[in-house]
Every structure is written in C-alpha cells, then in structure tokens.
Amino acid sequence: MKRIIALFSAVLLSASAMAAPSWKVYEVAVSPGGQQAVLEATDKFMKSAKGKSYGGGLHVNVVLANGISPATHSFVMLMPSIAAITDWEASLAGDADAAAFFNVLSQHQTVVSDYMGSLVKAWGDVSNEDRVWMVTRFYTTDPLRVLEAQEKLMADPAAEKFPGQVALHATSLGNRSGANNQISTHLFAVGYKDVAEMEAWTSYLNTQPSWGEYLASIRDVVTWQGTELLQNAVIYDAALDLEGFTNQ
Q1: N or C end of the chain: which has fewer CB within 10 A?
Q2: Looking at the whole model, is its pTM more than 0.85?
C-alpha cells in the first residue's frame, strides 16, 4: 500500500510540473572540428526571421564530462510550457530558415538523445550569469520526500553561503536513459558562475553535517544515476532568460 501511495505521489508531482515552465534537451555528438560550423549555423538561424519568432530561451552547451555518453554538446530549449515547445517544433516544418539550419547540423552532428521536463522548484540566487552546470539525474519513488529534504537542506544555516542556484525538475517525457532500460523521474540542475566556484562550494558542502543528513534522509527512495558537467557555449535569451523562466 505504501508503494502504491508513493508511486501515486510521483505521478501527481510529475503531472503538475508539466503545466509549469518547461524545457527540452537535445544531446548531440558533434564531429571533430564541427563545433564552429554548428555554432555558426545556430547563430544564423536565431538571427533569421523564423529564429527571431522563437518565444523561449536557447542554451547551447559544451559537455565537459558525462561518463559513457557520446554526447559532446546539448541544446536546451526553455519555454513557458510543454505545449509551447511542441507548437514551436511543429511550426518549423516547411520553413526555409529551419531547413537550412538542420541541413548544416546534419553534416556535423548526430542526435544522441532528447527528453523533456518541467521545473518543480528553484532555490538560491537564480542568475543569468551562471555558466557552469552540474546536472544529476535520479529515479525516485517518493518525489515529495525529495522536495521536503531539499527544502530542509536549503534552510540550513550552512546553505546561507551557497553561491549558486539549484533547481529540481521533473523529467516527464523521453526519460529512458542508461543501461538496463534505466528510467529517470527527476533531475537537479545546479548552476555556478565558473568551475572554481563549483569546486569551492562542493568542498565546503562535503564538510557540513546537513549534507550527510540530506543524503541519508532520501537514501531509501532515490537511485542516483550520475552527474554530468556542462558549460554554456552560447545563450539566446532575448525572448526568455533564465531568471524569467524560473520566476514564471
């Protein structure tokens, strides 16, 4: 019975998140020497008539570390809802600007995976200036306990020194990843202005009792699935920046 209740709470939290500010990620493997062509094609498209009509934010990231995944870059679309994302993508069909963009991409990259999700809650100093991201995917049978544990962690006096931002997202669609048909239900995205800031905070946090208490409190309901490190290569946020996305 407890398991049924836990799974039901996961469904409810995921469903409510789908109406929240949402995103889609395309992880791609760019061929050696192809990064410049991909970035130039992206810039050309975003400055085209069609690109200027995009109502969201676009982050193009370089992958610094992601384990066995062949992805070298990722495109992250930020929009007001999942419906807005799907409507935008449908509008690209038959558009000349989009066709030219995808033609260049097809010559220099292959898509590794794509998945969608929505913001649940954010903490810390949400800033457009953050450029380095630790993204940790996980599977949980009790998302409400994870949310409560994160609230407690961020309310601890130790968290007053936290220099970055952290957001909990529900990964509701396209969430199959890894070996053995592994499924992610959520992810944490933690942003810093640079790698040095990330290192300093991580070293400090590992000495704090509240961090150990946090991990212990969700140990029986969470399966961690690894952390990847990303850095923004270029951001297009004239229509929707990160601060606006998070505060919708």
Answers
A1: N
A2: yes
